[in-house]
Amino acid sequence: MKLAIVSAVAVAAAGFAVAVSYSEATEAPPANASPIYGVTIPEGYRDWKFVAPAQEAPPLDELRAVLANDIAIDAYKSGTLPFPDGSILVKLAYKRKQSTEFPPATVPGAPTTVQVMVKDSKKYPDSHGWGFGRFIDGKPVDLAQHETCLACHESRVKDHDYVFTRYAQ
Ligand code: HEC
């Protein structure tokens, strides 16, 4: 009986130790987060709604598709600008490939990057509320690339809350 109590206390203490180290771990930056912004690839994004396609001329020579979560889709549909906090936009990019089954058609080839913009005005006050992330094979690209995001979006689309893509009907 005494042994049972001692071992119960030991188990509880071990559980407490695990809980403490777990909460410390959750305060560290998440794995595979982008430099500067700490943005990660959002779970379930591949099932989000479609906003618009885009095509990039060589040398990138890519097809792109922009998807958005429900908060951003609602903002698009109601014409709400700026996008509200919680909006997330994801751009998927692929090499352009000529269809082998029907040559006039261009189809997605190898995937290249996944790019993410997250709206959180408290977390990102210095970048108009947007956090940026660019990923290759699920891993964030380097700091230098992340230093380019804001400048281009800021200089060209400030009248559309720094977002290029319009909703394609
Ligand atoms: C030189 C300009 C330029 C730079 C630098 C740039 N972007 Fe963009 N971005 C664009 C353009 C143009 C689009 C519109 C879609 C397209 O043409 O691919 C876009 C679209 C996006 C979108 C979809 C939402 C929107 O604004 O249309 C995301 C997400 C995105 N970019 C993330 C990033 C991230 C992350 C970086 C930095 C790692 C970055 N961009 C750097 C030009 C740029």
UniProtKB/TrEMBL annotation:
UniProt keyword Translocase present: no
Coiled-coil zones: none
Keyword annotations from UniProtKB, A to Z: Plasmid, Signal
Gene3D superfamilies assigned: Cytochrome P460
Keyword Signal: yes
The Cytochrome P460 domain, residue ranges: 42-165
Positions of transmembrane segments: none
InterPro entries in the cross-refs: Cytochrome_P460, Cytochrome_P460_sp
Signal peptide boundaries: 1-19
Name of this chain's protein: Cytochrome P460
Organism the protein comes from: Rhizobium grahamii
